[in-house]
Description:
This protein is mostly helical. The protein folds into two domains: 1-45 and 354-391, no CATH class; 78-341, ABC transporter involved in vitamin B12 uptake, BtuC. 67% of the residues lie in helices and 3% in strands. The protein has 16 helices and four strands. It has helices at 4-9, 12-41, 46-59, 78-103, 111-128, 136-165, 169-188, 220-223, 232-249, 251-261, 263-268, 273-296, 313-324, 329-352, 358-371, 374-395, and strands at residues 63-66, 72-74, 204-205, 303-304. The strands form two sheets. Strands 1-2 form a two-stranded antiparallel sheet. Strands 3-4 form a two-stranded antiparallel ribbon. Strand 1 and strand 2 form a beta hairpin. Helix 3 (46-59) packs antiparallel against helix 14 and helix 9 runs antiparallel to helix 14. The radius of gyration is 26 Å and the shape is globular.
Amino acid sequence: MKHKGSNLLEKDGTRAVLASLISILIGLVVGAVIILIVGLSDPELGLSGAWDGIRLVFGGLFSTGRSASGTLTFGFNPTNVGNMLFRATPLILTGLSVAVAFKTGLFNIGAPGQYLMGTAATLMLALGIPSKSVPAGLIWIIAFLGGILAGAIWGCIPGLVKAFLNINEVLACIMTNWIAANLVTWMFDGSKYRNLVENTKSGYIYKTSFNGVQTPKLGLDKIFPNSQVNGGILVAILIAVLVYVLMSKTTLGYELKACGANRHAARYAGINDKRNIVLSMAIAGALSGAAASLYYLAGNTEFFWSTYQSLPATGFNGIPVALLAASNPIAVIFTGCFMSMLDIVGLQMTNLTAYNEYITDVIIAVIVYLSAFSLVIKMALGKWGKRKAAAEKETAPVVPPDTGAADGKGGDEG
Length: 414
């Protein structure tokens, strides 16, 4: 009889979850050790300051500030949780973008460029269609779909060169990222969408609320008061569920995964591998475009048009979100929330201690580094489970086979 723990470790899904959790735990522990070292080496922080920093790393989402005596207090913080959900919305979608590509054997490092193209299309539609003539709700839908379409078109480019020219999608994605950055800069530079009302923000694009277009709160502002959360998080969760159904329950999803497992075998089986490669990158691009749409349609976020200075981190952060989730669309929801939680922790560290938010960047970097080795951790867990099962089998008592002699049925009936 096998031990229940051994059976669990033999399951691929269980090993993937454990590998992700181990990566996260090691990252948090490394961050805590760095905080302790910095605290002990700085007289202004000391051991008490380091202890406060460690507590915030593990529970910063639930920090409620400091008491009158100066000690940290913890409890349910609806503002922090709401802001975490708001920040998680684009991360979930860019994580899905990378995960879908992973499932089909592609590495979508082009999510930042697709995100930028979705941003441009969304803002131009949301601000360019006058709300005096068209209902704001309809403009929201048009802008959202426009962002998705722009991201899908931009995602098709590396898919096409991969499918028909066999050019590595990573190289193609890197080039399209920078083309998108400069293209979006050119489109916004000197456009009517730059914020000329506030003189100090002339380098920014108007918020979509300037035209009366913004994502409805759907009552979430009552649950999480004083936060930025809106109905976008519900849309992101719905999209994640739809992607799960697509990839796991449909013929198209099977064909996409078959191309990812072995493109040539899929072609031999009658699957159009070139079409599916392009379609996979188009879906990935559409998800990145949707991430940008939901973020900027919130109505309380501003876009800095000089994008040539840097690519949006949200696109790159989708990579660790997908890796930690083992490319499972449902798990992406939780890993996206975890990564956005670390952003909130960084703000809490800055506001409540002498540390700055860059310590959380170190934690994220360690987790990202380890998530890249999650497959190695998963394989190690599998080997450990097999050794444990073998050891249990060797030590298990030998039970003789039942011959039926005990109840008088084992002998000859002569």
